[in-house]
Amino acid sequence: MIITRKIEIYVCEPDKKLKNDYMQTLWKWRDLVRKAANIIVSHKFVQQSIRDFVYIKDDIKEKFYVSNIIREGKGMSEQNTTYRLLSDMMKGVVPSDIYSSLNQNICKSFKESLPDVLRGEASIRNYKNSIPIPFSSKSFASAFRKGPDGKFYFNLFGIPFCCYLGRDRSNNEAILNRCLAETYKICSSSIAFEKRTNHDTGKRVQRLFLNLCVDLPKEEIPLNKKKYIYAYLDVHHPIKCSYIVNAKQEEDSGIKWCMIGNETEFLYRRIQIQEAVKRCQENNKYATGGHGRRKKTKRIRFFHKLEENYVTTRMHTYSKMLIDYAIKHNAATIILMNQKPREEKAKLENNKENPFLLRNWSYFGLKEKIHYKAQKYGIKIIEDVPPQNKSEDENEYE
User: What are the structural domains, with CATH classification, of the chain?
Assistant: First the structure.
């Protein structure tokens, strides 16, 4: 299972002039990566749709195939066309590992999104300055080390970097130590620029972040394939689950259900944050006009981000509790039951008495995190199974 850790980094060079040169190089690479990504997408789209160009002669269109018009020679194939293009454009300016990784990532992304583009459900992707600078694990893993001061350092294409972990609430230090001990395998990663607000000066500054991709080995846990977990993503309780040993117990009406979280626990804090946003919006109408819109809406953006972080944290907590429940009972399968009847009943019951309830329930995010955590332990997830036992609430699905 591959996870991505976002770690802040900075160029650790005492010489200010040399440090500025390193930053200028990174910005130059970022601009070329953005330009190259858009060129790759354009060429791939033209290769797929050139038969639709009405101004091309019919005899050429009938015989047209991409492989027929590509020059012959070593490394010349439809798959490598964009790589050769990047090589001619960026060779000697950008390290070859960067544009090679970029070509692989963009081509893979284009191939995945092409069916939606052809159906009219999406448009071809456009890349901005927020695109990260990709590189392979070969350029990164060998230069990774831990200094005598306890900080983590690495050299990337001759540029020295240092990792800033801060309070390390995400436990990144433990992951980096395991990468050094080769317990975890480092995969292709990237460096991204992000604009953040300096709390001391209030100015917007660009900061560097390392998107570290790590391949976590599966933890071997003895699980019983005959045991499985029934789980409902309920409205009044985020997760309602019970373990089943065999079909006989499944028919038993005395199944004990385990409740993970509750309505008050999840909604109380979120509604508080939303009320704070509402108060800020009402107070802003008394502010005088003119320059400074960003400053006036600063607290609104803060509370929006606070709400987003709170929901993500709760979803991680509930999904982890479900996986721990499955491991506790040695269940190899988790069955997420069909939610449609429950959602329809919840709308009838709660739309009038509590309009916040359904709007603030994050079923999709919770499902994603359950899948993500189950993969680590080899637990199988089955979704949208129609209920087979009506003992819990017989009239609920009538």
Answer: 15-134 (no CATH), 135-215 (no CATH), 224-397 (3.30.420)
